Amino acid sequence: MERSSVENKYKWKIEDIFASDEEWENYFKETEKYLDFKHYEGTLTSAENVAKMFRAQEEASIRIERLHLYAHMRHDEDSRASEYTSMQSRSMSLYVQFSSAISFVDPELTALPAEILQSFATDKRLSDYDYYFRQLIRGKEHILSANEEKILAMGGEVYSQFHEIFGMIDNADIKLGCVTDADGNEIPLTHGMYGVILHGEDRELRKKAFEAYYDAYISLKNTIAATYFGNVKKDVFLSRARNYSSCLERALDGEDVNVVVYKNLLDSVDASLPSMHRYIRDRKKIMKLDEQHMYDIYAPLVSDAEMKLSYEEACDLVVRGLAPLGKDYQALLQKGFSEGWVDVMETTGKRSGAYSTGIFGLHPYVLLNYQPTTHDVFTIAHEMGHSLHTYFSNQNQPYAKADYRIFVAEVASTVNEVLLLKYVLSTTEDVNLKKYLLAYYLDTIRTTLHRQTMFAEFEYVAHDMVEKGEALTSDNLSAAYLKLNEKYYGDGIVHDWQIAHEWSRIPHFYTSFYVYKYSTGIISAISIASRILKEGESAVRDYKAFLSSGGSDSPVELLKIAGVDLTERKAFDTAMREFDDTLKEFETLNGIEN
């Protein structure tokens, strides 16, 4: 389908950003005038001068974000349109100029005595930046001398090389080969196709794909191990250079998260693993397998359970399902659906998948490629969760505090999914759909919570080995990974020897200590949704206060507003109990006894 044949009601109103490309061009030329900050250099010693600089910085930043969003969205409408690729590149060049122009700000402010920074943090003229200044003060002990900082900065491109090397291996050099299906058709393996096959019903094809896929990584295991070892050594070097006690402490400090959160995650998931092992055994029973292998773990347990709804019907269901969040939240959903926030239809050249985006001072936008499937119904709820988090933050915070951290980015989207799932489960009489949704929920928790925590524990183990002076090799990395796989999946599955090498194919390991945020995100969301359904209005009020808090404080502190304290075990235990309760309901519906 070509975009020109889609009704306007199914397209986002991009003209709310700029009415035309010509208007974008004029705005671009005007914005270039906002990038001169030289007259501020050397003046950031008074609150008055700092306030003036920040106002100018905000104005330039908002303008550049507006330019980039328009070009980015136009490009995603049809990637074949080269003019929007060019406009994207030009807006990014503008951002690079801006970043360079203000690069003096942080070093100049950080060099000031703590008492002056403290006075800035309490000055009314700089109230929008109080958290920023608290962060500067907190980080001063890890800031080195000017010459030392310059030397570390010069190594920036070197530090990123390990990620880039793995990217070249993973996307360009690796040969995944082909597999043959039951009809004799030869299927070229790609990362995407591997996922499709693993989620399919053809078991023999899953086995072939699994073996071929891992053969490719195993053939490069020593090169990949050396690359990952280099990445971890880089982390150790930077952590010691900046006076951190560990790589974990340095990584979490960047988002103002206490190390106790990470340790709570590992401990709580470890304690809950018997339920995970039981679910793995349940999958084996339902699939009627003599032996369950790692290539069986994503196969569907329930077939023919799609909610085949039109887009309008799906939107109505989402609105009804999110009724616990209040009529004002439902009204905002309706507003988004009816006033051009959402680009709905799959068209030729359009970017695949789904996302939510936006800029300060304007409503958010959502890209979909809607199909009448159960997954896509939940995608609507998920992306609108992101959008309304952005909406509430932008409405209630100044620009400097509106952007929330990645640590909490998946909370609102997952709260919506959980509430919608609970609603459908409570209202449908379709037993097959109930089985499907319960399995969907269990697998979501398994993959987003348990699996990502296993990854997080592997990272913790690997960094600890290097911090203690041990080299990383393909052999000891695979041994550590296999031990964790056996711990997390239990005795209901065959731990195929190839799975020991799974560490070698995970790109996120090159952004160290990132994956745990997926786990803490779903834990927080489950805890919030549970509280909303139990306590009602008071919990909803607290949740909306959290949605409205943007990035005004540490993400861990902001979650406390919604009743989630990740420095304690309660929220973790709530999520683990949710998995256990869902598993019991799933077993009852499927007639499984344990």
Task: Describe the model.
The protein is an all-alpha fold. It has 25 helices and 5 strands. The protein has helices spanning 21-31, 47-77, 82-101, 105-110, 114-121, 130-139, 146-154, 156-159, 161-173, 191-198, 203-218, 221-241, 247-253, 259-287, 311-321, 327-338, 374-396, 399-402, 411-427, 431-467, 474-489, 516-535, 537-547, 555-561, 570-590, and strands spanning 178-180, 186-188, 342-343, 355-357, 365-367. The strands form 2 sheets. The chain has a 3-stranded mixed beta sheet with strand order 3-5-4, with helices on one face. Strands 1-2 form a two-stranded antiparallel sheet. Strand 4 and strand 5 form a beta hairpin. The longest helix has 37 residues, at 431-467.
Can you give me a brief rundown of this structure?
The protein is mainly α and 594 residues long.
Tell me the CATH superfamily of the domain at 3-143. Answer: Oligopeptidase f, N-terminal domain
Rounded radius of gyration (Å)? 25 Å
How many extended strands? Answer: 5
Proper CATH architecture of the domain at 3-143? Up-down Bundle
Strand order of the largest sheet: 3-5-4
Task: Kindly report how far apart the N and C termini lie.
Answer: 50 Å
CATH topology of the domain at 3-143: Butyryl-CoA Dehydrogenase, subunit A, domain 3
User: Poorly predicted ranges (pLDDT <50, ≥5 residues)?
Assistant: none
**Structural class of the secondary elements?**
mainly alpha
